[in-house]
Amino acid sequence: MIITVPFITDNGVAQRMLSVSVCICAYNEADNIEQTIRSVYSQRTDGFEIADVIVVSSGSTDGTDNIVRDLMQTFQSLRLIRQETRMGKNSAVNEFLDGKRAPISVLLNADNILRDETTLASLISPLCDERVGIVGGHPVPTNDPKTLMGFVAHLMWAKHHRSSMMRPQIGELVAFRDVDIRLPTDMQSDEAIMKMELEKRGYISVYAPDAVILNRGPETASDFIKQRTRVIVGEEFMRKKYGYYVPAQDTRLIMSANLSTIKDVGAHPFKISFAVMLNLVSKYRARAHIRTEGTDMSVWKRVESTKDVRGRSK
After folding, report:
1. Is residue 180 part of a domain?
2. Is the distance from CB of 40 to CB of 120 less than 8 angstroms?
3. What angle, rounded to 10 degrees, do the helices at 190-200 and 89-99 form?
4. Among 69, 56, 216, CA closest to 140
5. To the nearest 5 percent, what fractions of the chain are helix, strand and coil?
6. What separation, in Å, do the N-terminal and C-terminal C-alpha atoms of the chain show?
7. For the chain, how many structural domains are there in total?
8. Less CB within 10 Å around the terminal CB: N or C of the chain?
9. Looking at the domain assignment, is residue 209 inside a domain?
10. Which tens digit of pLDDT belongs to each residue from 46-102?
11. What is the enclosing helix (H) or strand (E) of 154?
12. Are 87 and 59 contacting, i.e. CB atoms less than 8 angstroms apart?
């Protein structure tokens, strides 16, 4: 479902002011953390206020924490929560939820950037509707679509966008109401768990296509498989533990999204076949992990080629 609720009514009268807390999850993000923080503080806040921005640094050893501390001198509402060891994103999100100031929470990763100054407003405005519990943003990769792996990244996120237009998928950039939900720390799928729990409480989920967050897709096939395997494992454990199917597991939904996705990225048979092959390998790896390990994993190895969101190394 897509709901757009402007902060300012047609007669110019402001609606109820929303107060939000922003969480930035980081692990060794010294190359990215400053631009991510600055992208938050560059937002136009007509109709809402940012009560605080909290960086949860989970076991960082590369100077991430010092960069945040330096920026705290410039941005008075910026705070740092340091976890001495890396404990996984769900643990980091719980730390944020226990320490934040506002009833509306926004989650993003330290290797993502809000595209422009209106991104947060587009993300948050649907929450003016009391029926809405969680809103997902629109991830757009910064990879060069002319390269093979760049095309794969754009194909995957275009499919995510098209399927979300029909049934919201929540990930990369999220805003939600805090109704005292805390995440299990022995598994991943933070956004999907939050979506499931809010829907159980009668709230609806919304996709905000204008709330664009810039990310970086994997630049190598091995990194793609590593990242995609992790995602599929998380989805499978959502199904096994909770009986909850995420939109990506709805075959009819994905098939419906495929045609419009190809219109978006172009008909390139070899590149599309390559993407399909990578996804099949990832599914095989995920099933092998589930069969041999029998558990989800809360902490995964970094996918290094996704960390250069601006393509500075090119």
Report:
1. yes
2. yes
3. 50
4. 216
5. 45, 20, 35
6. 38
7. 1
8. C
9. yes
10. 889 999 999 999 999 999 999 999 999 999 999 999 999 888 888 999 999 999 999
11. helix 148-164
12. yes
The pairing of beta strand 104-109 with beta strand 132-141:
unpaired
* pTM beyond cutoff 0.90: no
Closest by alpha carbon to 278, among 178, 173, 120, 148? 148
Distance CA 68, CA 65 (A): 5
Domain of residue 96, CATH code: 3.90.550.10
100's CB contacts (< 8 A; 6+ apart) are: 21, 23, 51, 52, 54, 178
Tell me the C-alpha distance between 266 and 259, whole Å.
10
| Side-chain-side CA neighbours of residue 96 (13 Å) | 33
Q: Count CB neighbours of 34 within 10 A.
A: 16
Q: How many residues does the chain have?
A: 314
3-state secondary structure of 156: helix
Q: Is the pLDDT of residue 228 over 70?
A: yes
Q: Is residue 225 part of a domain?
A: no
Q: Is residue 8 part of a domain?
A: no
Q: Which two tokens stand for residue 80?
A: 């740092």
CB-based burial label for 11 (10 Å; 0-12, 13-18, 19+)? exposed
